[in-house]
Amino acid sequence: MTPKEPARVKLSNETLANLPETIARPVYDRGALSPGIVHIGLGNFHRAHQAWYLHRLMQQGEALDWAIIGAGVRPYDEAQRRRLAAQDHLTTLIELDPSGTRAEVIGPMIDYLPVTEGNGPLIDCMAAPEIRIVSLTVTEGGYYIDPAGGGLDTEHPDIRHDAAHPETPRTAFGAMVAALKRRRAAGLGAFAGQSCDNLQGNGAILRRTVVSLARLSDPGLADWIDANASFPDAMVDCIVPATGEKERALAAALGIDDLVPVSHENFRQWVIEDDFCAGRPDWDRAGAQFSDDVHGYEMQKIRILNAGHQIIAAPAEVLGIETIAEAMADARIRTLYRRVATQEIAPHVVPVAGMSPTEYIDLIERRFANPAIVDTVRRVAFDGSSRHPGFLLPTLRDALATGAPVEGLALVEALWARMCQGTREDGSRIAPNDPWWDSLTAVAETARTRPRAWLEMRRIYGDLADAGIFARAFETWLAKIWQDGVAPAIDGYLAR
């Protein structure tokens, strides 16, 4: 006989007591929570990571005045708001591990602001005195960084709009500026802005973005923000796949009717600079780490894990491999990752307390290979035009500056160029997967016969087309990929 599927409990405050006994749930009174944090960009990662740490504190009876209010600034965020509101902003977290599946329901989020043009509700909320932290997960490409100089891209239409219309901004950063202006006028202190995105020095980048944007419309306000607000650096880490029918089916099999469950690996890390101008929860009591060396942890994670994802994703996509675990099961791709990470990345990564770069590579290799995590190659490969400059090219520049090897890094960039041409080796089409996909595809097609055209995208590569050793290696690898295929090109590198 087929085992009977448990009756599903539609997730809500009223039904928490009806959940299966195996499902952990909040023991705190959610009705007694009060807000302290606004989080902008409320996707899966935030709920599996920062919200989980806060939930753990609340389970201990602490931080009950630090509840989260979710927010978004784009029209598509409204759909997520409605789904979460329908279940009282509760989330089912499903931990996927080869040893078994475990689940819990968390409840530190108590509201999700309406998404409106001009972001009025968001500005009102952030201007309220009880809000002491505004955190963000808006992706690495969401900070309006000028690719030429590294500062704020003041020519971007969104930034130009916010500078001209600071009371009705389009961006999260414009909304933060507007809220901070109101707080200054009301005699309130500033809040802390906390980036939770994979950027080296993410706190400094957030400060630069907010202060630079404020300076375009109100230099005095910019000075006040710079002097009074704080922007702590942080390194965040947990592999969290996108939610689809598989994840909803997992929740259903556990007896929970959740519109937006989140699956995740059994690993989390959060290293935070202790610089919060208006106070903070004691996240360290829930397993986070406060450190004066966030930069070292960021470098290790971004250059080995995040860059590692890009090393794996491009060849896997071209070869038609669907998940990261499946890519790591391919001996050729796994060895490519190991060789590039060990020989060409690790020498430019500083050790941190308790973890050498080589030990970290071992850890990441195991995590990537977890077959229980169905993390798609497509998700990992998304927005390569931001991720390659952020994750791989800093190491490449360090290697060039010291005369270190770059053959593997050149091959990785050539594999990405091949992927962006938009077809797999079996002839199937790769669906658009980058905000700049159309232009990337056009340049990748040109690069089939003139490889250096790819490196001439200054927005991504800057002056690297002029770095002879790297440029020549890139041209050789891309020509070989198109002539012989991805596998022979990787074999050629591994045989060196």
UniProtKB/TrEMBL annotation:
Residues 36-284 form the Mannitol dehydrogenase N-terminal domain. One of its GO terms (molecular function) is oxidoreductase activity, acting on the CH-OH group of donors, NAD or NADP as acceptor. InterPro entries: 6-PGluconate_DH-like_C_sf, 6PGD_dom2, Mannitol_DH, Mannitol_DH/Oxidoreductase, Mannitol_DH_C, Mannitol_DH_N, NAD(P)-bd_dom_sf. Residues 293-482 form the Mannitol dehydrogenase C-terminal domain. Keywords: Oxidoreductase. The keyword Oxidoreductase applies. The keyword Ubl conjugation does not apply. This is Mannitol dehydrogenase. The lineage of its organism: Bacteria, Pseudomonadati, Pseudomonadota, Alphaproteobacteria, Rhodobacterales.
